[in-house]
Specification:
This protein has 15 helices and eleven strands. The strands form two sheets. A seven-stranded mixed β-sheet has the order 1-7-6-5-4-2-3, with helices on both faces. Helix 1 packs parallel to helix 3 and helix 6 packs across helix 8. The N and C termini lie far apart (about 55 Å). The chain binds pyridoxal-5'-phosphate. Pyridoxal-5'-phosphate binds next to helix 6. The site of pyridoxal-5'-phosphate has 14 residues, from helix 6.
Length: about 475
């Protein structure tokens, strides 16, 4: 079809017929990708030079046929991507997106509501509020008290929690900054926590030295004695402990910190208690899964990333708390150009980090609305069963499982083998294209990590990974 984008009157406008054609073409390309992917390598070989050379052919000096650009982009993504939508991607929490989530993204982009002020996007704002409340209630926060917002991901949600905790503990910080504190504010997370905390401390003006990475016990959970000692030492040194973070599902090994005990320490020491459940928080949707997270309901705030185990397309995080006033003290500002707030309604820009806001929550709403909570529960339970199958299969093959978690992330090692051996096995498996797995540093040693990440993964894929590992092990041993 002719490139009608170039008409003099409105260069960006396409005809209705042309729009439909492009959507159909895109749908065809996606379907072909999904159908053929299981027979292709999970991780293609690629050099930066090769990709750059291709991308640089676009000099933007002339117009291109939209259909040709769509084709080319799909080819680039197909050839030069680690395929997280592959059934044998046993990777880093990056899901095969729920199809209703993909449609949610499409609708959000096409209608493009601006969520900053409620009055500009009533439908979108109420849909997001409804989903945030629902997830908050599953966490165990009292119905009607849930506050929070969608975020781009877990890092932004954790940043939100840190800022809120700072302002709750040291109210002057909101206007005078962290130098208003009587001493250096410090926060506590385990050595196995996500290192976004380091960046967050920098963003908040606290500096990375404000993060206490508390040692873990033999099961890789935050050591309570070490935590008490660290808080005590900070108090004596004139520092100002303000935030304790429990990780529910560590990124490396899926470890759940002892949440009830941490909640008790936080209460006793007057610290805010944040639970970072970016990945495993989705387990609140399943009855069995919710039990793994016992104690999460005692948190002051919680991070859950729908773009991990809820299989929303990236990016989608949720920040949850019950302190709407605190959020306003942390984020509200008066402006002369925003539409005035309507009565009871709440403008997101007054209680969260973002200003202009994309309709992040739609993809989560559409998946929840179609699957229902039971559909999600079945997926979560099924993933846990596949994790158990992988764990027992690897055990039967002589691997030692080194992490202790009911969640579907399995870290394993060959007894007495070196870090280099484990890295070589990973490289061999990934290089063969059979599956995607990764090395993981746990304490002083390197193990191999495999996580049930895609809803396309079946028992056959688990057994294919097992076979690929056995073959790789033979080759590396030589
Ligand atoms: C993924 C993850 C994060 C970071 O979240 P993003 O969505 O990548 O910003 C933080 N904490 C934990 C435990 C995570 O697994």
């Amino acid at each position: 079809m002719a490139n009608d984008a170039g008409s003099a009157a409105a260069p960006l406008a396409l005809s209705s017929a042309h729009r439909r054609l492009l959507i159909e073409q895109t749908a065809d390309l996606i379907e072909r990708h999904y159908e053929t992917l299981p027979d292709r390598p999970v991780a293609p070989e690629v050099s930066p030079q090769r990709v750059r050379q291709h991308v640089r052919r676009y000099e933007f000096t002339s117009a291109n046929d939209p259909a040709a650009v769509v084709d080319d982009v799909a080819r680039m993504l197909g050839d030069w991507t680690v395929h997280v939508t592959h059934p044998r991607y046993f990777g880093l929490f990056n899901p095969t997106p729920a199809w209703m989530g993909v449609l949610g993204e499409t609708l959000a982009a096409a209608y493009n509501p601006q969520l900053a002020a409620w009055s500009h996007a009533a439908a979108a704002n109420e849909i997001e509020r409804h989903v945030v409340s629902f997830i908050g209630e599953r966490v165990g926060f009292p119905r009607g008290d849930v506050a929070g917002s969608f975020t781009t991901g877990g890092a932004e949600a954790n940043l939100t929690g840190t800022l809120l905790a700072l302002v709750r503990r040291i109210p002057e910080v909101a206007d005078d900054g962290v130098r208003a504190a009587a001493g250096q504010p410090v926060l506590y997370a385990s050595e196995e926590s996500h290192l976004a905390w380091i960046k967050i401390a920098r963003v908040c003006g606290l500096g990375s030295n404000a993060v206490r990475l508390v040692p873990v016990d033999a099961r890789l959970r935050m050591d309570l004695g070490a935590l008490q000692d660290a808080v005590e030492a900070d108090r004596r040194a004139g520092n100002v402990p303000f935030l304790l973070i429990g990780t529910a599902g560590t990124t490396g090994a899926g470890i759940i910190d002892p949440l009830p005990e941490l909640a008790a320490v936080a209460a006793e020491r007057e610290l805010s208690f944040h639970v970072d459940a970016a990945w495993a928080g989705a387990a609140v949707l399943s009855e069995a899964g919710r039990a793994f997270l016992d104690g999460i309901e005692r948190a002051d705030s919680v991070t859950i990333d729908p773009h991990k185990w809820m299989s929303a397309p990236m990016g989608a995080g949720i920040f949850l708390c019950t302190d709407l006033d605190g959020l306003h003290r942390t984020f509200d500002v008066a402006t002369r150009y925003m539409p005035p707030a309507l009565g009871e309604t709440i403008d997101p820009y007054t209680h969260s980090i973002q200003w202009s806001r994309r309709f992040i929550g739609l993809k989560v709403f559409m998946a929840l609305a179609t699957l229902g909570v039971d559909g999600y529960a079945r997926q979560i339970d099924r993933d846990c069963e596949l994790g158990d199958e992988l764990r027992s299969s690897l055990g039967a093959d002589g691997w030692r499982v080194v992490n202790d978690t009911p969640l579907p992330v399995v870290c394993f090692a060959e007894p007495a083998a070196t870090d280099a051996f484990h890295r070589a096995v990973v490289d061999d498996v990934v290089g063969s294209g059979a599956a995607w797995i990764s090395p993981v540093q746990l304490g002083d040693t390197v193990a191999i990590r495999a996580c049930i990440t895609s809803h396309r993964t079946t028992s056959e894929d688990v057994q294919a990974l097992r076979a690929a590992l056995a073959a790789a092990r033979e080759r590396v041993h030589g």
